[in-house]
Amino acid sequence: MTTNAKTTVLNLTAEEFVHPGNRACSGCGLSVLYRIGTKALGRDCIFVVPPSCLTVMQGLYPIAASQLPILNGTFASTAAIATGVRAAMKRLGKKTQVVAWAGDGGTSDIGIQSLSGALERNEDFIYICYDNEAYMNTGVQRSGTTPQGGLTTTTPYAGKKEHSKNVPGIVAAHNPAYVATCSASYPLDFHDKLLRAKQIRGLKYIHIQTPCPPGWGCDERMTIKIGKAAVDCGLFDLYEIEDGRKVLSEPSRRLLDKSKQHPVRDYLKMQVRFKALSEAQIEAIQQRTDRKWDAYRQEFAEQ
Amino acid sequence: MSDKLINSGNTAAALAVQLAGAEVIAAYPITPQTPLTEKLSELIAAGKMAAEYVAVESEHSALGVCIGAASAGVRSFTATSSNGLLYMSEQLHWAAGARLPMVMCVVNRGVGAPWSVWNDHQDAISQRDTGWIQLFAKDHQEIVDTTLKAFRLAELVHIPVMVNYDGYYLSHTYMPFELPEAEAVKAFLPPYSYLHALDPGRPESLNTVTLPDARNDINGVKQGGYMDIRHNLHQEMRLAMEVWEEIDADFRQRFSRGGTPILDPYRCEDADFVVVAMGTLANQFHDIIDRLRQDEGLKVGVLALQMYRPFPTDRIAAALQSAKGVMVYEKGLSYGNQGALYADLKSALYPYPNRPRLHNFIVGLGGRDIRTDDLFQTLKEACRQDDSVAPEQQDPSHWIGLQL
Question: Does B88 touch chain A (CB under 8 A)?
């Protein structure tokens, strides 16, 4: 688990690993994560990246937006390629940290087979999924993690009918070394969870809810506020699982006090993608969220 | 001392990979490849081979692991058959486009549907346009030698190499073969090095999105666009033929085997009629050639094609242009057209004014028995065919051994 010695903006490393100026959209949650995440990872790491917004953000040949070695690979095989890089590092006797960094489609849909295989083998690398809850790089199509009711270009008018996949839950069912959830709105929490992940052998999985202004339908200046609203209403919760023990992270832990939990409506109404939701649907989402948190309040009563 | 063994083709391949010093092996089981990877996992588990064995969850991931390892600067190997190769197809293109030196054995098998576990060449033929070098071995000794040479070729030209051999005919039969001495192999095959190996000390972004047009880098130096990069692959794949011949010559000097790296002729010097085939099928023709020469007085020979991609256009045209007839027997085709090898050969011979008459026979799909008598009769008839047969009647593929 992360310790109480939290990183703050005052002691965050000043060294930058990402060049100023990249191809991310303005207000992109991923660009915050990438900049802060690379500070936690440091120079001795190799990235494996499938097609995603990150592919474009990292620059078009022959220009790179990052100062780190990056291996771009096919959509379905991120975890397999990372396995190969890690196996090579082992043969070469290098401790270099291998980091797979994929989107939600590349993780929860097309990439889940190779991720499951790597989890089962407990490969020694960090897998980061930045979840902007749709195929944003191709123009906002539904993915396995698009929430119910969410409007996308392939779920027009009424929004997505199905619930989203609980990807960190699927990952946790493999009993890997470490699972954590993060939010782009709490980048230093992500930073410190990466620091923890670096200390652990085996597969470390970090799932980050990542607001996307053009995909979610909100103003670019709202990125951080929307991510915080998702946590405040309890729809998205931040936690760590280590050795099978689950601990809520601070921004979510305060919701164990029910009076601190905001209505989901506050979060949903900030985004155009949820405008098709009826009052009854919003109420159903509220009830589902309440049930989850009632269970958490029992589970974590002693925390 | 070199080691003389009698064992299966799959074991021959595994022992060659051990000798080559591959350090990352990733594979997924599929018949008839399975005993090859079982053997490698056994060698690694027994401490006889210093390598990582990754038991992946699919063929797509098997090649994914090899792509990762090769990009990170380590010699890697996988093997598959049939639908496993097809499941890798996207990764095949990727490995070639990324110019990764790696070797894969393909134990050739028919592809579904319907399911067949028996031999033909459709798996490899269907992947001929992926940018991989494709070699075909005819016996156990060739499996060993071709695999060893393939690693050196891949690493010299930075193009992945597929070593094909026939499922069951070679994979599961026992034949004698000789294994070179480990030290001699080390001298023949230098340590793996990859120019663009992933290295935090010298960061590079590999396989980045590349625009249609050439573009300046930060130093103002123009770098190729997608089409230029792909043109390099094509050009260097064509040049790989010469490199392959040089490697074979060096191998022959060291190990006293080889000498026919691209085309392996049998009684072709004075032949009026030449059979062209790949893999064990070419060897099956040796007795037929002898019989036709002896009993029928026909001057026939057989030319085994050892390298299918890059296609040795000039070499094969030069070898065949003075023949009266060329008969292509093959175990794979381009559905709706003709035998794939036949079409390639026809295009290679087209520029020559006195090109031979051509015949195409499809045999042995999905393990259908290739009867020596059928080969004998069809070849004899093709040799005796006179010029009164109109070209459009001569051209279609003839399927041998159909039972309905």
Answer: no
